[in-house]
């Protein structure tokens, strides 16, 4: 299927845009930031522990997953340090934090989407193709919420959602093209990329997203909302 790269990109973009639309609907909510950030933190933790981590372990084993997690954390720390030298035009410390959070999450999701695209392309002639595209689309909805909530709170508009969805989804198309022509390639490398993305995503979630929520509300409220997010994504993945 020569158009598998386009189908994969479209499925990812539709999911991201749907998540962006949900984030846009709730951006004016008075208690929105700590609530949505906490729920998103729980959702991302659920996605990582129940979906992405098992995927990496299945392909490359526990050792690759653990090494990838560690390197992902150091990648985040390096990018975070470098980001402080980047001039943000908001002139507002809180908005700058939102921008950094949104950009880090976009990077980590784009990194994770690349091996996802490879897996999709490698199964082009399989009965798994349609279910995989549906899964890609649905899984990108909570990721879209997590990415675009901080960017919208930083004052970015609808165009940022479209641009962000394109950037995060492009690796699916590239990966699907490679996968359809060359297969899974080197399995341990695919597993490593997934684990790296997971390490970056967890680091961003812990410090940038949940950390921000904790600074703007009570700890017990944030933890309860995070648990709700985890439970929601659990049911979401179960019924998917």
How is the secondary structure organized here?
Layout: H1 4-25, H2 32-83, H3 93-122, H4 129-153, H5 158-182, H6 187-216, H7 219-239
Helix pairs in contact: 1-3, 1-4, 1-5, 2-4, 2-6, 2-7, 3-4, 3-5, 3-6, 4-5
Structure description:
The chain has 240 residues and is mostly helical. The protein is 85% helix and 0% strand. It contains seven helices and no strands. It has helices at residues 4-25, 32-83, 93-122, 129-153, 158-182, 187-216, 219-239. Helix 2 (32-83) crosses helix 4 (129-153), helix 2 (32-83) packs across helix 6 and helix 4 (129-153) packs antiparallel against helix 5 (158-182). It starts with a helix and ends with a helix. The mean pLDDT is 80.
Q: What profile does the largest beta sheet have?
A: none
What is the strand tally? 0
CA distance, first residue to last residue: 25 Å
Percent range for helical residues?
over 70%
Summing up helix and strand content along with how strands pair, one would put the structural category as mainly alpha
Using the CA coordinates, give the radius of gyration.
Answer: 17 Å
Low-confidence stretches: none
* Average pLDDT score: 80
Task: List descriptors.
240 residues, mainly alpha, 7 helices, 0% strand, globular
Short description:
With 240 residues, the chain is mainly α.
